[in-house]
Structures
1.
Amino acid sequence: MKKVITTDQAPAPIGPYNQAILSGNTLYMSGQIAFDPVSMELVTDSIAEETKQVMKNLEAVLYAAEMTFENVVKTSIFLSDMNNFSEVNSVYAIYFDESTAPARETVEVANLPKFVNVEISMIAIK
């Protein structure tokens, strides 16, 4: 059985999907981009600020599912430009202990929603 996870502390979906789905003990989180959940404006002042907003959005969804970044077992990072990898990775690293960090892939893509620079999705387990 699946349970829809939603919070007003993260941006509302802009299409036919949910912020996350909990199936059993596994949380499948949709990709987040750098929308400020209050203003629904994109935070794109710098790649670091954009990544911080993405991580805040993901944290809010995790919290709504009664989880933290410690529960994350897999992340997918999508970049519009691999030259941003180092800065994105530096911000990402703040949220995880390197010794217990989740599995991850990082890929460059031709485009992302709203032409942002970074999108991140996650899978977490209770």
2.
Amino acid sequence: MIGYVTLGTNDIQRAAKFYDSLLSEIGAKRFMETEEFIAWSVSPELPALAIAKPFDGNKATIGNGVMVALEVKSSEKVNSVYNKAMELGATDEGAVGTRSALPGFYAGYFRDLDGNKLNVFCMLQQNA
């Protein structure tokens, strides 16, 4: 069970503003915060997403192959979160739509202001 995922940032205030606005699209709010770390969640019982300045004091860098996936309940919500990310200055990594790898998988991919890769997705209802 994942408790939380942390993404590195070199500008905590800029990243906080981005994630405050982006994650409000799915009802997440800050629940833990220090000068070096902020975490958001929709519920204390569910996994969280956090940003942090690296503990070792070195520059935050992007993890090649690392991605955080945010699950939502509908394609409309996928669209709204993806569009919000673009509005906030994120970089497109794959526009919203269905993906052939998994039937019913609807997703959009983007990179945040620090270059961290995220995905927002839902599973569409399949006709039996």
